[in-house]
Write a structure and sequence with these properties.
single chain, about 60 residues, mainly alpha, 3 helices, about 80% helix, flat, transmembrane
Length: about 60
């Protein structure tokens, strides 16, 4: 578990750095993809999933 959290933190920092620089490139997108896979394996996955589901429900419930 400690190794997973370390990798998640490292990839998170790299993703933020890549986003602040001149946009995402293919290599940057791969780092973000790996970040997603590592986040899915942590204890944060259910929280992220429920947050995204709630956001999608709110957006889906909006009437123009």
């Amino acid at each position: 578990m400690a190794v997973s959290i370390s990798v998640v933190l490292l990839l998170s920092v790299l993703a933020v750095i890549f986003l602040r620089n001149s946009g995402l490139k293919v290599s940057h997108a791969l780092v973000c993809l790996l970040l997603g896979f590592y986040l899915a394996g942590t204890s944060l996955a259910p929280t992220i999933h429920s947050g995204l589901t709630a956001t999608a429900d709110i957006v889906g419930g909006l009437r123009p």
